[in-house]
Amino acid sequence: MPNAVRIAPSILSADFARLGEEVRSVDEAGADWIHVDVMDGHFVPNISFGPAVMKSVRATTTKPFDVHLMIAPVDPYIDAFADAGADCIIVHAEAGPHVHRSVQRVKSRGLRAGVALNPGTPAKMLDYLIDTVDLVLVMTVNPGFGGQRFIESQLKKIAAVRKMIDATGRAIDLEVDGGIDAETAPRAVAAGADALVAGTAVFGRRPDYAAAIRELRGA
Ligand SMILES: O=C(CO)[C@H](O)[C@H](O)COP(=O)(O)O
Ligand SMILES: [Co+2]
Questions:
Q1: 200 is in an annotated binding site
Q2: Domains of the chain
Q3: pTM for this one?
Q4: What is the mean pLDDT of residues 103-130?
Q5: Is the per-residue pLDDT at 219 higher than 90?
Q6: Where are the alpha helices (DSSP H) in 43-179?
Q7: Using a 6 Å CB cutoff, which residues line ligand 1?
């Protein structure tokens, strides 16, 4: 299905005491990708987990790991997450010091590279990056926590990024992250998103993850 929307449950909202089982459950429930939120307590005001934890759950599924690094500076950690089994590594345009170099470093490991834009960062930031990336992640909350409210102004940015992607003629994924549920998902997709991260909307529906994923897809 070429135009199907990908659903990427964020394990930030999983039960960390049963992380492996949680990953297996969302895999069986129909997740397309597993979204891994890495927070450093510096770039964002929260700390989640590092590459060792990710590596230990990597073995529980064959689904691609979509690794969202909220780390500044990020370059010293790219190899560790590549070694831990990332399929796509997303770096923040704001994390610095040289985002283009960070993207090159991800690509040099043979992985898909993504760039994330915070809500206050304009789409224009992508002008000299879009030709090198495989994915753009538009943040629809300020990064650092799950369970926040979708920021409406980002719909305009999703539409602007969709135009930029289409103009390249390349297959670049447009993923949206933050406050995605059955109400916001269709609006993000209508604006141009083709991949949706969902933490609370999936893991908050414990134990029926399949229903949660079906609902997001159907929406
Ligand atoms: O990157 C993130 C936060 O920085 C998370 O991926 C995001 O918040 C998902 O959680 P929710 O769906 O509950 O908003
Ligand atoms: Co995320």
A1: yes
A2: 6-218 (3.20.20.70)
A3: 0.98
A4: 98
A5: no
A6: 51-58, 75-83, 99-108, 154-168
A7: 10, 12-13, 35, 37, 68, 141, 143-144, 146-148, 177-180, 197-201
